[in-house]
Amino acid sequence: MTNPNSLANLKHEGRPLKRGSTKKHRRLSVTDEGWKGCQELSEDLDMSISEILESLGRGEFILSKPLTK
């Protein structure tokens, strides 16, 4: 069940949009290990996982080659 407040928080009525466009609800799948790593990165960067993905998609972060293949 989705909390109605969660959906309401996606609406930006009365406040400016941070990136100039509205966000859409997306869905992704990730392993527990991958999610834990994302949460740790989020804490280290003091950014939400959503903000990190947005920045990656906009080319604002530089990625290096993976540590393992």
Ordered list of secondary-structure elements with their pairings:
Blueprint: H1 4-9, H2 32-45, H3 49-57
Overview of the molecule:
By secondary structure, this protein is mainly alpha-helical. The chain is globular. The model has no long low-confidence stretch (mean pLDDT 83). 42% of the residues lie in helices and 0% in strands. The protein starts with a helix and ends in a 12-residue tail after the last helix. Keywords: Plasmid. Residues 17-28 have a biased composition (Basic residues). Residues 1-31 are annotated as: Disordered.
Query: What overall geometry do the principal axes of the alpha carbons give?
Result: globular
Largest sheet: none
Helix percent reads 40-55%
Rounded mean pLDDT score: 83
Class based on secondary structure composition and strand pairing: mainly alpha
Number of strands: 0
Keywords: Plasmid
Region (Disordered): 1-31
Biased composition (Basic residues): 17-28
Key descriptive features of the protein:
globular; 69 residues; mainly alpha; single chain; 3 helices
Quick summary:
The chain has helices spanning 4-9, 32-45, 49-57.
